[in-house]
Predict the structure.
Amino acid sequence: MSLAALAFAAGAGLLQLQATLPALGWALVVPALLLLGLRYRPVLIAGACAAGFFWAAACAQWRVADWLAPELEGRDIAVVGVVSALPALMERGMRFELDVESADTALRVPGKLLISWYRSAGEDDGGAAATAVHAGERWAFTVRLRRPHGLVNPHGFDYEAWLLERGIGATGYVRARP
């Protein structure tokens, strides 16, 4: 049984080496392999590897399905949501995570956004706008969003994977005052 568990883990690890996610239709092979594996032990190991591979693929498909629809990229969208993490202050504004409750679009907006709110260049309010947002508050913003993407640098920080890990489906910035 431990060999099957190792094969399952190896299958999940094998998915990490793929450039793209596979079609989940191929997962229909797994039950046949597992049934055949009841009779032949080596086939059971291959079935466990395939089960791990497609389990990891299904989890990845589920996470990527919450990303922003390409049709909404670069458009102004009015959203209402709750600030779900402590805002991070920047030189010219702040960045915070927003759990979306509703949006004014027919297409689905991701459940979690990473929003930046910049002060305008001529704005000199002593930092009041930069500290206006607090964790747990409900806000309505007009935002412009884009899908998560990052640079692919070997041995460097993978921003897209970091966003995927945190469940953030889009990044963007506030377009108008709430």
